[in-house]
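[Automated response] Your request has been received and processed.

Submitted sequence:
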Amino acid sequence: PANDEAALVRRVTAWAQLMPNGRIEVEGARVHLLQRGRSFNDKGAARRSFTLSQAVISRGATSFNAYGTMLLAQDVGQSLFVSAKLENLERGRDASGELRVIARRVFLDKLTPALRGRGTLDARVRLHDGRVESAAWTANARNLELQPAGTHFDHVSVEGALSREANDVLVDLTDLQIT
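Generated structure:
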């Protein structure tokens, strides 16, 4: 299990090692990503397009810092903020740092057909020597409906944390509110 966790963290942070040293700043850009192996010259190439309202990426010899806000399509939600601060990116070392994701007013049925409503998630994950050291999150949903039963809640809020004790991972629900 520890090897699985370390392998997952390596896969998630490997993209940061590929970026050359330097800094990129973007403000108000429409980004088009092509399917791997395709060219912009291919008229029928599958594309994923999104709007960046702001993004900053900085790569040092052993570090990577990035943050940005992406505006989501109206039928998906409002916005997605992502930040990453990583250290120890030399080959043969395990990354340490923090990852953060804030998804605002996302339509929950876009994530799973079992839910209806809109939700917001604010999550932080701390890495240390290639393993998850801790995490914390807050999730809120309005007009939540559970499918297929149709059970309805006006508002659901949950806060939680993840911590490590030796090789054990502990998950705590610190607050749960349902109305």
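Summary generated for your ticket: The helical segments are 2-18. The mean pLDDT is 89.
If you did not submit this request, please reply to this message.
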